[in-house]
C-alpha cells in the first residue's frame, strides 16, 4: 500500500514515489542540521583560538613542577652569577607564558602560577605573606639541586607579571614592605581592576600598591609597563579607568597614537614618564582581551632585566 501525502490545501492530495520521499527527508535533515549548527555558532561566546602545544616549537629549556607553579629554565640562561633574576607570572597557561618569556631572551628564570578563577583566587592565597617567599626559596633550591646556579646564589631582580585576574596576587605581594623593595619590574597585561566607591569613584585603597609603584617608576626607581583594552566590565572599573587613574596620579595624561602591535592589536593611546609606560588598545570582546596575553613579550622585553649573553 502506497503512502498518501496530503497538502495543506484541502481537497488535494499527492502521491510521492518512494525515491522522492527519501530525497525530501534528506533535504529536511540537512536544513535542520545546518540550522542547529548556525544557532550553536551564534550562541557560542567569543574565546581565544585553540592553540596546540606544537606552538612551543623553538622554546628550549627545562620545566620543573613546583608546589604552586611551574619553573621554566631557558636554555640560554647563565647561572654563573651570584644573583638570580626571577620573573614570576600570574594567570594563564604556562606554555604561552614560556613562549613570551623565551622571545625576550632575558637572563632570568620564569615561574608561572595559575589559579582558576577571578582576582580573589590569587588575593586570598597570597594574603599569606609567607607564600611568596616560599615560592622564591623553592625556585632557588630547584636551581641549586640541578647545579644550574652556584650554591651561594641568591635572588636578584624580581619582575612580576600578570594577565587578567593575576593582579590579585601582585597587589597582595606589593603590600608587604620587604617584598616591595626587592621587586624591580611590573608588567600588567590588560590587568588591574578595582571596585567603585559611591558608584562612580575608583576605590583608591585597592589601587594604592600600584599607585606607589607607578610613582616610583615615573621617578626612575622601578620599571612598570601596562597595556589595556577598551573592554568595559559590568560593575567594576575597567583597565582603561585604572590605568588612567595611575597616569593622573603621577601628574600625566595619555595622548593619542596609532599603530599595530602583536596579533593585530590597534594602538590608540600611550603614556610615558620615566620608567612608567602605558599602552591603550581598541577591542571590546574576549579575543581582544586574550591578545594582551599573547603579546606580553613586547613589554616584557623592555623591562630592566639583563639580556642573556650572545655566544
Identify the notable features of this structure and list them briefly.
about 300 residues; alpha/beta; Rossmann fold; 2 domains; 10-stranded mixed beta sheet; 10 helices; globular; disordered N terminus
Number of helices: 10
Outline type = globular
Number of structural units classed as domains: 2
Strand order of the largest sheet: 3-4-6-5-7-8-11-14-13-12
**Average of per-residue pLDDT values:** 86
Question: What does the model show?
Answer:
It is a single chain. This protein has 311 residues and is α/β, with parallel strands linked by helices. It has two domains: 5-43, no CATH class; 61-300, 3-Layer(aba) Sandwich (Rossmann fold), CATH 3.40.50. 37% of the residues lie in helices and 24% in strands. The chain is built from ten helices and 14 strands. A ten-stranded mixed beta sheet has the order 3-4-6-5-7-8-11-14-13-12, with helices on both faces. Helix 3 packs parallel to helix 5 (167-174) and helix 7 (204-218) crosses helix 8. The longest helix is centred in the first third of the chain and has 26 residues, at 18-43. It is globular and about 55 Å long. The model is unreliable at 1-16 and 27-55 (pLDDT under 50).
Amino acid at each position: 500500500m502506497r503512502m498518501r501525502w496530503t497538502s495543506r490545501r484541502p481537497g488535494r492530495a499527492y502521491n510521492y514515489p518512494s525515491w522522492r520521499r527519501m530525497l525530501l527527508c534528506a533535504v529536511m535533515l540537512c536544513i535542520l542540521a545546518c540550522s542547529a549548527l548556525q544557532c550553536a555558532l551564534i550562541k557560542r561566546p567569543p574565546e581565544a583560538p585553540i592553540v596546540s602545544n606544537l606552538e612551543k616549537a623553538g622554546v628550549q629549556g627545562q620545566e620543573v613542577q613546583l608546589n604552586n607553579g611551574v619553573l621554566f629554565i631557558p636554555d640560554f640562561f647563565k647561572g654563573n652569577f651570584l644573583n638570580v633574576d626571577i620573573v614570576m607570572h600570574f594567570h594563564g597557561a604556562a606554555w604561552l607564558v614560556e613562549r613570551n618569556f623565551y622571545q625576550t631572551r632575558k637572563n632570568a628564570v620564569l615561574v608561572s602560577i595559575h589559579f582558576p578563577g577571578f582576582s580573589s583566587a590569587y588575593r586570598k592565597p597570597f594574603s599569606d605573606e609567607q607564600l611568596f617567599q616560599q615560592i622564591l626559596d623553592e625556585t632557588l633550591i630547584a636551581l641549586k639541586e640541578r647545579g644550574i646556579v652556584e650554591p651561594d646564589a641568591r635572588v636578584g631582580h624580581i619582575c612580576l607579571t600578570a594577565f587578567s585576574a593575576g593582579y590579585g596576587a601582585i597587589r597582595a605581594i606589593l603590600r608587604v614592605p620587604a617584598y616591595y623593595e626587592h621587586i624591580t619590574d611590573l608588567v600588567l597585561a590588560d590587568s588591574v581592576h578595582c571596585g567603585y566607591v559611591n558608584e562612580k569613584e575608583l576605590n583608591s585603597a585597592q589601587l594604592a600598591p600600584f599607585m606607589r609603584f607607578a610613582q616610583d617608576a615615573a621617578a626612575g626607581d622601578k620599571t612598570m609597563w601596562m597595556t589595556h583594552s577598551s573592554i568595559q566590565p559590568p560593575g567594576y572599573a575597567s583597565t582603561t579607568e585604572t590605568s588612567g587613574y595611575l597616569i593622573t596620579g603621577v601628574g600625566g595624561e595619555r595622548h593619542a597614537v596609532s599603530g599595530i602591535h602583536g596579533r593585530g592589536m590597534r594602538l590608540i593611546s600611550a603614556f610615558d614618564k620615566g620608567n612608567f609606560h602605558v599602552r591603550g588598545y581598541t577591542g571590546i570582546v574576549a579575543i581582544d582581551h586574550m591578545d594582551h596575553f599573547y603579546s606580553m613579550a613586547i613589554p616584557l622585553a623592555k623591562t630592566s632585566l639583563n639580556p642573556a649573553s650572545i655566544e
